Amino acid sequence: MGEPLLYKTPPLQVSSKTLINNLNRINLEKSAMSPPLDWLSQLLAMVPVSGHLDTRCYYGAPWKVTYDLSPAGEMPYHIVLKGSAIVNAQGDFPAQQLDEGDIILFAHGTAHVLHDVGAKTPREASFRQELNFVVSENNEIGERLDMLCGRFIVRPPYDRLLRTYLPPRLIVRAVPETPISHSTASQLANLVNLMRHESATPTLGAHAMLGALSAALFTLALRLAGEDEEAPSGLLAMAGHPRLAPALNAILHDPGHPWTLENLAALCNMSRATLARHFKERIGSTTNDFITDVRMTMAITELKNPSNSTEQVAERVGYQSISAFQKTFRQRIGMSPAQWRKHRDT
d(Cα 159, Cα 20) in Å, to the nearest integer? Predict the structure, then answer.
């Protein structure tokens, strides 16, 4: 008898492109199965924010501190630990008094001046470099001020979303309601108290601690502002509106979904016209503009991964046309997707 016939299965031919597409599909499915995050967690996952404490100020009145327009990607903040201060900012902002427990941040990096409540001309303050930060002080004997000054840092072009949809100037109060309160204001007061102690003396690890605490300060400040029924326009006003919050959560959770005014209105249990009006009044833009800005923010992260083609990124953020995606990306980010890929490596 002859030898038995052997039937061999031909080798499976899988192109590298098909393999990458399958892996991306699996990752997307895993992402879809993960539990949704709240709007603020989604935002900060999309827009990484770090923090840095620069200076602790010990002044007697009269005193004055001037801040120029911040570089792109930097948002200065100030925390009044003791005493009071007047803040004047460029633009259409009235002078504002800050008291103990007040925190002010400038999301647009606006130039501003802080000074005491008097009218006397101050002398120059001195600066000395401590182990992890700078101490600024003067020799005046008037009302005392103790203040922390730092920056929130968001690398461009990630900062665009925050600059567009956060108020230019935001003030919150870090004052505990009761000694055992678990409110956001109390949590913020506890965090500020920890920053006070970490910046009081040179301490091992204080630089890392103060950076991490500054980042947490940003999150708690936005959380507290979003809880206020009189929240300023933008994301905070939308988040504080119970009927609009579902639309905000949905857009940030899945920017690539083909959202329409109709299906977003259904999520909010209101008519299309009502949603459009509330959206414009509170966030200051149309739903389409906001969705586009969120999609472009997601796209700049996706494009950082060299295994993601521009076509894949376009589809992932909701575009069927690569040319439409490229045009929108250039309009919003100021460069083409290919230019951003090169820029992010520099």
Answer: 31
Give the Cα separation of 266 and 136 in Å (integer): 54
Give the CA distances from residue 156 to residues 32, 51, 221, 271, 295, in Å, rounded to whole numbers and listed in that order.
28, 15, 21, 36, 16
Return the closest-CA partner of residue 138 out of 160, 120, 157.
Answer: 120
Three-class secondary structure assignment of 119-172: CCCCCCCEEEECCCCEEEECCCCCCEEEEEEEEEECCCCCHHHHHHHCCCCEEE
The pLDDT tens digits of the residues spanning 15-74 come to 444 443 444 444 444 444 455 678 899 999 999 999 999 999 999 999 999 999 999 999
Tokens for 235?
């994301």
Selection from 132, 101, 111, 109 nearest residue 221 by Cα: 101
For residues 135 and 76, the answer to whether their CB atoms sit within 8 Å is: no
Sign of CA dihedral 158, 159, 163, 169: positive
Assign 101 to helix, strand or coil. Answer: coil
Q: Are 295 and 323 in contact (CB under 8 A)?
A: no
Residue type, 205: G
150's CB contacts (< 8 A; 6+ apart) are 51, 52, 53, 54, 55, 76, 77, 210, 214
Task: Summarize pLDDT for 234-261 with one digit per residue, the tens.
Answer: 888 888 888 888 999 999 999 999 999 9
